[in-house]
Specification:
With 487 residues, this protein is mostly beta strands. It is built from 5 helices and 34 strands. A hairpin with a 2-residue loop joins strand 3 and strand 4.
Length: 487
C-alpha cells in the first residue's frame, strides 16, 4: 500500500480511543472526524491514504497534499520540489514557474530559466508594473548596494515627472546599442554622443552638448530627408531670443541667429576653424518682421580665426571683400574676372531712345589719369574717412566675452566694430600705379550722367556710359576723316 507521510514537529498532547490528537495553537491538527474529511489512525506522524487538506476558518482549502498524484497544491497551483528546486504547475499540468535553487534562477512561464530572472511570453504584455501614487514607481539596478540606474514614472524616476511621464536614468553614462555595441550615449552632464564617443569636444571654441562622429563615412555623416507627395522639404532650424528659453524677447540688430563652423585640428585642439557662416539680424525686428543677413567668412593662411569675405543683406544686395552694408546689388572690393560681361540692352525694353550728341571740347578737357590708391590713415581727411568707411567697411577687432551655457561660464571670441575705416582692406591689392578717370572730372559736363553716387558720398563712374560717348566721338571723328579724304 502506498503511503504518504507529512511529519510535523509539534507537541503531542494525548491519545483518546486510539486516535491521536496534536495541539498547534492557534489551530488543532489531528485525525478526528470534525477536523478531517478522511481521518486515519495516527502512526509515526500523519498517515493518509487520499489527501491531507488545510483550510481556513471560512472552510476554504488553501493547502492540499494529494496522495494519488503525489503533489502539493497551494491555492489550486501544483508545485513539485526536486533536487534542482521547485516547479509550479497549473491544475491542468501546465508549467508556469520555476525556482532553480541550484543556479539561483527564477523563471515565469518557463521551467528552464537561463537568467537570474526570466519572464517568457508568446505575445501581449508579459510584465506590468502598476503604481498610482504621485511619486510613481521605479525598477532599480544596483551594484554593491548602490543604485546605478532605474526606469519608472513620476518623481521616483526624475524630479518634476508626473505619473504619466516615463523615464530612464543612469547615475553615470546611459547607453543605447544594437548587436552588443553601444550606439548612443548620454553622460551625467546631459551631453549626447554617438558611436561610442566618450568626451564632450570643444569645436571652434564652443562647448557642445551633442556630438555625432566616427571613423567612417557612415558614422560621420548625417542626412535629413523627407519623402512626401508635395513640394515641402526637410527643415534645419536655428532660433534666437533675447530672453530665457521659451520666451519671445525681440532679437536686436546684429544678434547672431545661427552659426555654422568648419573646424580643423591644428595638432593641439579643435578651437581653430577654417570657415564660418553666420546669420544675423539686419535691422529692427518686430512682430512678423525679422530682417536678416548672411555673412560668409574664411580664415587666411597664418590666422586662427576667419575674416568676413561676403555678406548678403536683408534687401538682397551682396558685398564681397568688404564688411560694410552696400547699396549696389553687387559691390566688390577687389579684382573681378569673367570671360564675359553682358548688359541688358534690348530695344523692346527701352523708351525715349535718341542719338547721343557729344561736345568735343568738353571731351578734350577730360584727361585720363594714373594714380595710386591711398593706403594709410594719414592720407585721409576726416571727410574722406567717412567715404572710406562707407565703401570699405569698418575695422573689426577680436574680443572675448563670458557667456553662460548650461549654467556654466564660457569664454567666447567675437568681433566688434571700431567705427574706423578698415585701412588694411584698403591697402590690400591696391599697390602699384593704376590708370583710368576721376569721377569729379565728369561732373558739370555733358557726360555728367556717367557719374554714380556711392555710399557715404563717394563717387564712381559707369564705364559702359563712357564707352557709349567714346563710340559717338569716334563716329564724329570718322566723319571728319572721311570729309578730309574727299578733298
Amino acid at each position: 500500500m502506498k503511503q504518504f507521510f507529512l511529519i510535523l514537529t509539534v507537541l503531542f498532547i494525548s491519545n483518546f480511543g486510539g486516535l491521536g490528537q496534536l495541539l498547534a495553537a492557534p489551530g488543532v491538527v489531528g485525525n478526528r472526524d470534525n477536523f478531517w474529511n478522511a481521518p486515519q489512525t495516527f502512526k509515526k506522524g500523519i498517515n493518509v491514504k487520499s489527501r491531507l487538506s488545510i483550510k481556513s476558518t471560512s472552510n476554504a482549502e488553501f493547502i492540499k497534499v494529494d496522495y494519488d498524484t503525489s503533489s502539493l497544491h497551494l491555492n489550486s497551483m501544483r508545485p513539485i520540489q526536486d533536487s534542482t528546486g521547485i516547479s509550479v504547475f497549473t491544475t491542468a499540468g501546465t508549467g508556469i514557474a520555476k525556482f532553480d535553487a541550484e543556479n539561483i534562477r527564477f523563471g515565469i512561464n518557463t521551467l528552464s530559466p537561463s537568467a537570474t530572472l526570466e519572464v517568457a511570453g508568446t505575445g501581449g504584455t508579459i510584465a506590468s508594473f502598476d503604481g498610482t501614487a504621485a511619486a510613481g514607481i521605479a525598477v532599480t539596478w544596483q551594484t554593491t548596494g548602490a543604485n546605478i540606474g532605474w526606469v519608472g514614472n513620476g518623481s521616483t524616476s526624475f524630479v518634476g515627472l508626473t505619473t504619466t511621464d516615463f523615464g530612464i536614468n543612469s547615475q553615470s553614462i546611459l547607453h543605447l546599442g544594437t548587436g552588443g555595441t553601444s550606439r548612443l550615449q548620454m553622460d551625467s552632464s546631459g551631453n549626447i554622443f554617438t558611436n561610442s564617443l566618450s568626451n564632450a569636444l570643444s569645436v571652434g571654441g564652443f562647448p557642445v552638448s551633442f556630438i555625432h562622429g566616427g571613423d567612417t563615412d557612415a558614422k560621420s555623416s548625417m542626412t535629413i530627408f523627407r519623402g512626401s507627395g508635395n513640394s515641402s522639404g526637410p527643415v534645419l532650424a536655428f532660433g534666437k531670443s533675447r530672453g530665457a528659453w521659451g520666451t519671445y524677447t525681440t532679437a536686436t540688430n546684429g544678434d547672431v541667429l545661427g552659426n555654422i563652423l568648419f573646424a580643423a585640428s591644428d595638432g593641439t585642439d579643435y578651437n581653430s576653424y577654417a570657415a564660418q557662416i553666420v546669420a544675423q539680424v539686419d535691422g529692427t525686428s518686430g512682430p512678423n518682421d525679422t530682417p536678416g543677413r548672411l555673412i560668409f567668412s574664411t580664415t587666411a593662411d597664418g590666422a586662427a580665426a576667419p575674416s568676413e569675405r561676403m555678406r548678403i543683406q536683408a534687401d538682397g544686395t551682396i558685398s564681397i571683400g568688404k564688411t560694410a552694408d552696400t547699396t549696389p546689388a553687387l559691390d566688390v572690393n577687389g579684382h573681378v574676372h569673367a570671360t564675359q560681361f553682358v548688359t541688358t540692352s534690348d530695344q523692346d525694353l527701352k523708351k525715349e531712345v535718341a542719338d547721343l550728341s557729344c561736345d568735343l571740347s568738353q571731351f578734350k578737357a577730360i584727361k585720363s589719369k594714373s594714380w595710386k590708391w591711398k593706403d594709410s590713415e594719414k592720407d585721409f581727411s576726416e571727410d574722406q574717412k567717412a567715404k572710406l568707411l562707407a565703401v570699405y567697411g569698418e575695422r573689426k577687432v577680436k574680443k572675448t566675452r563670458t557667456i553662460e551655457i548650461d549654467g556654466e561660464d564660457v569664454e567666447e571670441e567675437y568681433e566688434e566694430g571700431t567705427g574706423e575705416p578698415d585701412f588694411e582692406a584698403v591697402a590690400k591689392d591696391k599697390g602699384g600705379t593704376k590708370t583710368g578717370f576721376l569721377a569729379q572730372d565728369f561732373e558739370g559736363t555733358a557726360y555728367q550722367n556717367c557719374v554714380v553716387e556711392l555710399d557715404g558720398g563717394a563717387k564712381g563712374l559707369d564705364y559702359a556710359c563712357i564707352s557709349a560717348y567714346q563710340w559717338e566721338i569716334m563716329q564724329a571723328l570718322l566723319g571728319r576723316i572721311e570729309a578730309l579724304e574727299q578733298k
